[in-house]
Amino acid sequence: MGTLIIVLTYIAYVFIVVVYTIKIVAWLKLPPHIRWDLYPVIHEENYRYGGSYYEQPEWWTKPRPRNTWRSLFYSLKDNFYMGEYFNRNRTYWLCLLPWHLGFIFIITFHILCFFAAVTMVGGLEITAGSPQLLGKGFYYLLLLTGGVAFVAGTFGSIGMPIVRLADRGLRTYSMPMNFFNYFFFLVVYGSGLFAWLMLDPTLEEYRAYWLGLITLTPPELHPLTVLHIVLFDIFLIYLPFTRSTHYITRILAYYFIRWDDEPNLPGGKMEKQIASLLERKVSWEGKHIPSGKSWAEAATESGLPETKKDTP
Amino acid sequence: MPQLEVGGKSYEVDEDGFLQELDKWGRDFAQGYATIEGIEGELTEEHWKLIDYIREYYAQFGIAPMIRKMCKDTGFDLKKIYTLFPSGPAKGACKLAGLSKPTGCV
Amino acid sequence: MKKNFHIDDFTHPGGQVTELDPAELSPLPPPYDKREKPPIRKLTDEQSTRMDASLDGVVAIGLTPPKSPEEEKAFIDKFLAGIEKLFSTDDNWTFLQPLVHTLEYCVKCQICSDACPVYVSSGRQDIYRPTMRPELFRRIVSTYIKKEHPLLRKIKDSDIDLNWQTLARLGELAYRCTLCRRCAQVCPLSCDNALISREIRKVFSQQMGIAPKEIHEKGSVQQLRVGSSTGMTPAALRNILEFAEEEIEEKTGRKIKIPVDKKGADILLIHNAGEFIAWPENLEAFAIILDAAGVDWTLSTEIAGYDSVNYGVWYDDFQFARVAIRQSQAARALGVRKISLGECGHAHKAGIVVADRVLVGDLIIPRESSLPLLEEIVLSGRIKFDPSRNHFPVTLHDPCNMVRLMGIVEPQRRILRKICPQFREMTPHGVENYCCGGGSGFAITQSTNFPDWRNSVSGRMKMKQILEAFQDAPGPEVKKYVCAPCSNCKGQFRDMFEYYDVWEKSGILYGGLVELIVNAMADLKKPFIQWEWH
Ligand code: SF4
Ligand code: SF4
Ligand code: SF4
Nearest-CA neighbor of C221 among C308, C300, C310, C302? Predict the structure, then answer.
């Protein structure tokens, strides 16, 4: 049993990292697109009211200061606070935020467990009464993150299906898979919550489990903790199949779509990229498009219907 | 393409009754259409003045004249045009003159 | 009564997916709360045989039903091949990344719905939700492009049964969104449902050759052939400019020669050619200001060089690129230093922002909005102003394309604050504004019953905002001015104000920004704004 969860855990972590990476790389490798910015653009000087560098006469002769930290903070902040939901649908937010906090905290909890285990190998004692300050710190931090994860996650998984069903619009756009997810995640969080409250109030078993993971010695655990760990591993493997990558892609979309206001200046790198994209061949079948020719050719001929033979 | 019966003849028009082929236009078209447009009786000299003006401008420049220019050159003010053609210069007068519907952001 | 809506309604042949009930439309303040007019005209029986109106009874494209099952199948197959092309780098590098992102990462949370003026104004009709088009699109991809396993489609609820009518409805539905992108702005996941409307339009145009006549055949095609989507030839342009010069002299006593095709001028000014025909006072005002400020500028008579519109930005990447290139070529031919765009929202976004990644080599000519230039002139003190001449209430409409889509927010406001003592904002405004309802080609889509829909549904929110901005003086005795620095928006206001009888009931006039500037010029004898031309 112990060996099984060690193997499963490693597989789960490797799997989620690999699949997430593949997904992100695939996203990033999509070709550069036409500008489609949307204001406010947060790195802009006048982001408060949504102003852009186009507000200045002869903008191409002026500096275009960019505040990258501000935009980074802005885009990350919402992962933890979900402002648009808070402002626009409070009830939904009340369930959605805990549901997301569940994710964030359960992952943080496990990462912390890993570090705790590392320090334990180094001789640190992690208990409430540990003589080392770090040991105490870890103890309470683990308790906090684990506790918040289980409670928030359970709450969210119960609340989400309820708000989804209560609202006409949300109901129309809900799919069976959504409800499966809510149920499955409820089982994951719920099993953790149960194990924590009933069997392992100090979360000692998790530390043992992680210690076992890094020292590759199968730990002795209560079956209910084992159940939660197995469920959690399945959860990790399942996550990449949901839309969960949106945590990262939404930020990429800010940078690469909404806030992508990089002008194409003569002689720049972008000009070269575009020139090469313009060489790509098109196959659209509308009469006004010369199928088989390149974008550059298609865009410079007039494409008037009468100049082309009618081939339906 | 929809067809429209005007004065016993059938014309090709667009969805909103604008004549599609300028060269099919004749005085009987304008007169016939006047009834459809709710203009009572025979078209008067003033009606014809405006219609002829619009047609001449169109023949020369390929578009309907600007309303302001139309007013200035014919001496009719906008109110007068609306009394002559209750649907107004574009939807009324130009339609009777056989022009197609204005296009672009106008 | 709102019936319970189901996605399958889209696939059932015959009937209408939604019946718009005037009683359900969002309320307008008095005296517009009582509707005397019939809301949306029904098609005639004859029209119904030729045009499909089975979405909501309204026609923007009006597809003709196929004559045989074979024809239907060919139509569907060709369409699906088009959808496939959207995912190819060769055919759609232009928008592939935003498209894929929106399709894959929307969580269907419906936050965007309440941001959409069309959805809200319609009385929250399900079919107008910003998420409706993407939903249908995703189902088509899942069922016919990715060919996912039926079981998986069941779990994901992503099944759809395509027939001709479903596609006809989808095509119409792509023309019930003004591409104002207010929905995209509030999306926590940076998804852009407006983009999906445009991608669907692209498949219809680039693959099927289907688009509203006003936008394609009479629009961009005509512009590339004649020089302007209005059909205006260079000769007509010269005739109009002569007239404008006469008018300027009559109104201001100034003799101004409007420069045309002046080689080596500093600025090539491109107006929306609609201004020349429908609102000549706008181009006159531009000429007066630039002349008074001593700017070295010119107009062009080249193809597309005197019409800044670029309808391609609404429906077709190729038509878009063609027009953008012609405009740059016109500037290159004159050897000007830069292009400045007059008061037209979509031309701003198309010409300055979107065209940016289409132009290469010597076609990259600096392009800018005329608003910052105007701001500089007005605030510099080069011209003397007497703001008391604009002693009437003024509010400002933000054209989405200039504001939300390119961040030009303050220059126009700084001008108005200086020359209009009774300037007041609408709520909300700036980047959070509502579209006028005429966006993405709607203002020029003038056929059949589409204008009824545009005036009563897509423009409704703006109508309400305008009335509320003037609620301190609602009656017609106080003349009021909506400043709309966009010809397209002005076209919408003209139609909508006529539809609701706004001049008679409320005394509201619409017009551009430069007209207000000239009206405030201290040394003019007569007011420039002529209220009688409402
Ligand atoms: S587009 Fe964005 S706001 Fe709209 S439903 Fe999808 S995720 Fe939610
Ligand atoms: S772009 Fe505007 S009109 Fe279109 S769905 Fe979004 S909010 Fe609605
Ligand atoms: S017409 Fe004007 S307000 Fe409407 S979408 Fe275009 S720019 Fe926006």
Answer: C310
pLDDT band at residue C3 under the 50/70/90 scheme: low
Neighbouring chains of C at 3+ CB pairs under 8 Å are A, B
Using CA atoms, how far apart are residues C300 and A268, in angstroms rounded to an integer?
29
A252 within some domain: no
Atom of ligand 3 nearest to the CA of C345: 7
Q: Which of B42, B79, B104, B105 is catalytic?
A: B105
The secondary structure of chain C in percent helix, strand, coil, rounded to multiples of 5, reads 50, 5, 45
CA of C193 to the centre of ligand 2 (A): 7
For the question of residue B94 being annotated catalytic, the response is: no
Ligand 1 atom nearest the C-alpha of C102 is 1
Asked if C162 and C243 sit in the same domain, the reply is: no
Contact A44 C104 (CB under 8 A): no
Is residue C344 domain-resident? yes
**Tens of pLDDT, residues A168-214:** 888 888 899 999 999 999 999 999 999 999 999 999 999 999 999 99
Q: What is the Cα–Cα distance from A153 to A100, expressed in whole angstroms?
A: 7
What angle is formed at CA A14 by the lines to CA A12 and CA A20, rounded to 5 degrees? 95
Q: Residue C46: its chain B contacts at CB < 8 A?
A: 2
Contact in structure between B36 and B7 (CB atoms under 8 Å): no
Domain region containing C289: 216-374
Distance C98 CA to ligand 1 centre (A): 14
pLDDT of A307 > 60? The answer is no
CATH code, domain with A96: 1.20.950.20
Q: Which two tokens stand for residue B84?
A: 């002559």
CB contact under 8 A, C277 and B15: no
Partner residue opposite A169 with nearest CB, options C81, C129, C368: C129
Dump pLDDT digits (tens) for A93-149.
999 999 999 999 999 999 999 999 999 999 899 999 989 999 999 999 999 999 999
**Neighbour tally for B69: CB within 10 Å:** 21
Residue of chain B with shortest Cα separation from C215? B104
Look at the block and give the residue holding tokens 């809301």: C39
Whether residue C303 is predicted with pLDDT greater than 90 in this model: the reply is: no
How many structural domains are present in chain C?
3
Taking residues C10-37, report their average pLDDT.
88
C404 shares a domain with C367: no
Separation between Cα atoms, residue C70 and residue C76, nearest integer Å:
10
Q: Do B105 and C447 touch (CB under 8 A)?
A: no
The answer as to whether A59 is a domain residue is: no
CA gap C522, B35 in Å, rounded: 50
Count of domains observed in chain A? 1
Q: Which of C222, C229, C240 is facing B66, going by the closest CB pair?
A: C240
Q: What separation in Å is there between the alpha carbon of C410 and the centre of ligand 1?
A: 29
Fold assignment, B3-96: Arc Repressor Mutant, subunit A (1.10.10)
What are C385's strand-pairing partners? C521
The domain spans of chain B are: 3-96
Helix (H) or strand (E) holding C367: strand C367-369
